[in-house]
Each structure stands twice: as structure tokens, then as C-alpha cells.
């Protein structure tokens, strides 16, 4: 059977998960009504989803333990794969379809994927009065990072499926005995030097992580939470043209503008909650892909990240944006492999057994490094559809780190930035207020005109 060992970071994500703390990422995609001519109905869309998901080789793979390396695991094809165990339909009342879809998505995101099966699920959400529908996709973080998740999930769209090429099969892991392939005496010294070099790199990377840690262990209180096992989801949509208008005026990048909007929204949210501003600005982890530009996304996770103190305590919106720009410029100059970004590199240095038995101790380490995740997930720039129904919006959803109450994910598509907020349901019952605050903060940086109101 074809197998492929889990990369160290993927193995870490696999073992960090618990029943009360799932580690899958997701997306809630909203589609317009099906075109009238084909006469398709939601049952046809369900069948189309199932066929296209089954055609993605990666979605047929499950995780299995292996004897070597000790503590390791591998992806292997599920011999009993049944796509209908992964693709289901739920009909909603439809009176307020977007809100109902978000509420159901939160409930479904609370549940871990079944670990004995390929670790993913899709749900067709139907029942909107105008014939529109939504699709919720869940992928375990061990299966993919954001860019890889887009590459996998894109297989359901008409435009991608039409040009589908069979994916390359994973390279088999050859069987080995405990005595096969032992190095001769002449190579032992070289191998020892390599291992000492690896140890030195691991110590250097570990030191970088320690330097970035807040050793007092004091996270921003409003963003910290014991895992309740519940989830709440809210969404917001911003005009990409307005984001770029701010960028052209102030310099920097569109991502700088969006990070400043998040900082301002958090400040507004604290105020509306009647909470005092934190004594120190909350720290965000901003993931960075380690994949080469233009290279096809390979299997598994390839991530690093920047640490950014979100200037929540700064009252002036323009000054907040300037602070974000300066901080992100420093991050880029230093590179993504220091601080929080070095956690991914450290995972690459550890043996599989350390991931398996160290997960209970490492699971709470995120709060020492950052308070919340803020990530951007790129989507194809071309228009997308499913069964002829146009994609209207796609809201990405990031997993929550243990001990934290909020994660923010953003995807630009079709002239808009779609923002998915995922929160611990017990800790953040007012997540919709934070979603509303995002729009208000962009208004401060770029007061809306008539054209913006129509958009």
C-alpha cells in the first residue's frame, strides 16, 4: 500500500489535538442560485460535491501509526474509502440563511474529524429561499496548511475540476529491517558530525523560541480562555478597493492595512465590552508560508510566522497603521524563522517520539508566544463556481490555539476581503460585535463615499 510519512510539523498538529480542542481549519463558501437551464437541485449539488471530492487523491488518505521511525505516522490510502461518509447535506430553515449557516458551521466546527478515516468533512447547507446555498469544508491541520487547503478544496470548483490532472502519487516508504542500510565504519564519523550539526541547529532554533516567549506567561485576559469545546463563528466583508486606497495613500501593504483594522476593531470591542485596555498590546501570530513563490503546494504544512504587537492601546487609527507598518517591516527584515516562526523549524528538528509524548506539555505553549492568530489565506483570482452557481463569498476559518479565545482569517476574492472569526463560544458570546467593529475601523481609515456604500 502506498504510504507517505507525516512531516514533523504535521505530526505535531496530529498529536496536539484533543476531543475538547479540535485542530482542523475550514471554510464557509456561499454560492448563488444554480442556473435555471440545467434544472439542477441541491441533491445534484450533493452528488457533484461527492464526485469531485472523491477525485482528489489526497482526500482518500488516512493516518496510520508506523513501526519506524518510532512514534511516527504515515498517510496511507483508505482501502474502505466511502465519500458519502464525508460529504453530507443539512437543510436549514432559511429565514436568515447567512446567520443560520454561520451558527451551524460553528456547531460542526466544534466536532473533531473522525481519526480512523481520512480527516476531512464537507457539508452542503441548503434551504435559502432564493435557491442559494453554502458549503462548509473541514480539513485537519495535519492534512494541510492554508495554501495547501486551498489547493485541495479548489478541486470542487467547476473551473479547477475541468482542468484537473491526476495528482502525483506519494513516494512509497520502502520496507526496512532493523539491520538494513546500516552505515559502514567509514561513514559513522560523518553521520555523527551531521547529528551534532542538527543538534546545534535545534539548540539555536529553541533559543530563538525562548527569546520570543513571554516568560511571565501573562496573556491578554480578554483573549485567553480555557477550552470549553464550543465554537462561535462570525463573518465580515470589507471592500478590497478601499483597502488598496488606504495602502496607496499610506504606503505599506494591503495586509498591513488589514492588520491595523483588526487592531482597531479589538480596541473598539474592548471599549464596548466595558473592559480596560490591556497594559501591553496583544500579540498576534501572523503565519508566513515557507513555500517557494510560484511552486505548486506540496503535501502537508510548510509554515513559519511573524510576531506582531497589535497597537490596540494607540487611540489614533493612522498611528495604529503606521505602527503596524514599522513592525511588519522589522519582521520582514529579520526573516520569518525567528521568534514564533521558529516553532515550526523546531518541530522539524524533533524526533517523532517527542511529538507523540511531548504534545500534552507543548499544547499550552502558544499562550507564551502570542494572544491570537491573524492569517490571510489566498484564493484564486479568477471567478469560481460550483455546478454553475457562482461563488459569492468564502470565509476562511482558522483553528484556535489552546488557551486562546479568538482566531482571525482573511481571504480576498472578487473585490472583497472575506473575514472569518472563530472564537471559543463560552468566552466570546458577542463575536458579532467584533465583526461589526471591523467595518467601522475601515471607515475610520477610509471614510466611505457613495460608491463605497453601493459596494
TrEMBL record:
Extract the Pfam families matched here.
WS_DGAT_C, WS_DGAT_cat
What is this enzyme's catalytic activity, as reactions? an acyl-CoA + a 1,2-diacyl-sn-glycerol = a triacyl-sn-glycerol + CoA
Q: Is the keyword Transcription assigned to this protein?
A: no
Specify whether Lipid biosynthesis is a keyword of the entry: yes
Q: Tell me which SUPFAM superfamilies the record gives.
A: CoA-dependent acyltransferases (SSF52777)
Give the enzyme's EC designation: 2.3.1.20
Q: Name one GO molecular function term.
A: diacylglycerol O-acyltransferase activity
GO terms in the biological process aspect are: biological process involved in interaction with host; glycerol metabolic process; response to hypoxia; response to nitric oxide; triglyceride biosynthetic process
Which InterPro entries does the UniProt entry name for this protein? Acyl_transf_WS/DGAT, O-acyltransferase_WSD1-like, O-acyltransferase_WSD1_C, O-acyltransferase_WSD1_N
Identify the residues that the record assigns to the O-acyltransferase WSD1 C-terminal domain, covering every copy: 300-445
Which NCBIfam families does the record associate with it?
A: acyl_WS_DGAT
What's this protein's name? Diacylglycerol O-acyltransferase
Give the species. Answer: Streptomyces cinereoruber
Amino acid at each position: 500500500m502506498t504510504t507517505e510519512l507525516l512531516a514533523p510539523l504535521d505530526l505535531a498538529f496530529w498529536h496536539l489535538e484533543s476531543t475538547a480542542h479540535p485542530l482542523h481549519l475550514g471554510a464557509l463558501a456561499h454560492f448563488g442560485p444554480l442556473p435555471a437551464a440545467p434544472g439542477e437541485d441541491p441533491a445534484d449539488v450533493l452528488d457533484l460535491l461527492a464526485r469531485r471530492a472523491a477525485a482528489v487523491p489526497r482526500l482518500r488518505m488516512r493516518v496510520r501509526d508506523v513501526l519506524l521511525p518510532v512514534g511516527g505516522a504515515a498517510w496511507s490510502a483508505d482501502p474502505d474509502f466511502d465519500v458519502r461518509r464525508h460529504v453530507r447535506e443539512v437543510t436549514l430553515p432559511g429565514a436568515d440563511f447567512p446567520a443560520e449557516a454561520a451558527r451551524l458551521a460553528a456547531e460542526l466546527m466544534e466536532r473533531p474529524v473522525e481519526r480512523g478515516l481520512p480527516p476531512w468533512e464537507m457539508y452542503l447547507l441548503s434551504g435559502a429561499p432564493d435557491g442559494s446555498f453554502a458549503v462548509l469544508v473541514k480539513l485537519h491541520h495535519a492534512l494541510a496548511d492554508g495554501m495547501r487547503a486551498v489547493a485541495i478544496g479548489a478541486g470542487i470548483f467547476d473551473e479547477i475540476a475541468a482542468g484537473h490532472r491526476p495528482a502525483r502519487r506519494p513516494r512509497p516508504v520502502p520496507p526496512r529491517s532493523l539491520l538494513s542500510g546500516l552505515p559502514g565504519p567509514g561513514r559513522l564519523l560523518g553521520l555523527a558530525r551531521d547529528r551534532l550539526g542538527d543538534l546545534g541547529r535545534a539548540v539555536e532554533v529553541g533559543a530563538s523560541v525562548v527569546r520570543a516567549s513571554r516568560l511571565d506567561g501573562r496573556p491578554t485576559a480578554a483573549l485567553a480562555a480555557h477550552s470549553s469545546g464550543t465554537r462561535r463563528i462570525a463573518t465580515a466583508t470589507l471592500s478590497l478597493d478601499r483597502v488598496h486606497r488606504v495602502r496607496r495613500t499610506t504606503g505599506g501593504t494591503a495586509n498591513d492595512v488589514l492588520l491595523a483594522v483588526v487592531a482597531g476593531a479589538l480596541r473598539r470591542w474592548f471599549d464596548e465590552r466595558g473592559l480596560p485596555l490591556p497594559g501591553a498590546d496583544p500579540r498576534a501570530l501572523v503565519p508566513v508560508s515557507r513555500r517557494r513563490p510560484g511552486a505548486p503546494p506540496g503535501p502537508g504544512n510548510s509554515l513559519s510566522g511573524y510576531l506582531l504587537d497589535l497597537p490596540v492601546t494607540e487611540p489614533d487609527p493612522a498611528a495604529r497603521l503606521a505602527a503596524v507598518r514599522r513592525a511588519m517591516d522589522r519582521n520582514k527584515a529579520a526573516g520569518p524563522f525567528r521568534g514564533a516562526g521558529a516553532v515550526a523549524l523546531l518541530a522539524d528538528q524533533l524526533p517523532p517520539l517527542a511529538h507523540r509524548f511531548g504534545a500534552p506539555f507543548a499544547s499550552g505553549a502558544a499562550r507564551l508566544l502570542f494572544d491570537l492568530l491573524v492569517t490571510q489565506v489566498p484564493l484564486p483570482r479568477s471567478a469560481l463556481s460550483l455546478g454553475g452557481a457562482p461563488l459569492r463569498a468564502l470565509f476562511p476559518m482558522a483553528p484556535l490555539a489552546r488557551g486562546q479565545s479568538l482566531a482571525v482569517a482573511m481571504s480576498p476574492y472578487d473585490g472583497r476581503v472575506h473575514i472569518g472569526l472563530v472564537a471559543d463560544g463560552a468566552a466570546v458570546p458577542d463575536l458579532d460585535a467584533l465583526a461589526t467593529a471591523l467595518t467601522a475601523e475601515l471607515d475610520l481609515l477610509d471614510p466611505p463615499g457613495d460608491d463605497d456604500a453601493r459596494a
